Amino acid sequence: MKRLVPAALAILAAATAGADTRGRPDEDSLARAARLNTQLAVAYLKQNDVRSAREKIERALSQNPRDASVQSAAGLVFDRLQETDKADSHYSTALRLAPDDPDMQMNYAVFLCRHDKPDKGLKLFEHAARNPSYQTPEVAYTNAGVCMREAKNLPKAEELFRKALGIRADYPDALLHMTDISLQRDAALAARAFLDRYFAAWPATPESLLLGVRVAHRLNDRATEDKYSDKLEHDFADSEQTKQLRQGAGQR
Asked: N or C: which end of the chain has fewer CB within 10 A?
């Protein structure tokens, strides 16, 4: 299952690429420059070059601080630099500039959940999910569920994952989370049902195979346990999940 990660780099890059920069010629030039510097900052972050990312995003902010995507990218950069208060300020500014933009809502929600403000993050995820312009509400509900799991609120997390699956029945992250939650609840048959739905729609991954080992072990289904174990060892020998399997994780 995926954990919450910093705001989507691709979303920010796409948003800045498509930003509306119409205005006076000088303003247009500055807005285009800010957009380019933001794209460069995102590219540098992908390369883990945070020093260059900071330089580019600070330049973009000086050129066009009224662009919500620039502010949101600044939040991402300063979060990576562990300057949490500054990151929070930029994410908040982005949302103030574009309060109905679901990408700004999602970006800030991820940040809030990662920094121990799950209730505030949950509200923004739910706003994004209900936003008519947001085309993948199952993603918002699943991220909200992850946020609640990390906040140790398992009932709310399960509710949110089920909402995601109510929108898209084969959404893979929600299926894997529900498999794991079912195991936590000692509901191995339910766990197998969720995992079967996953394998019916998606290829095996190290994560899904290790879950399969755990589910089969809980059900005393040795043949299926061996099948998943062998596939994990054979197809993903160097994965973290294979290391966990060798350490006995499949029996938990």
From this structure: C
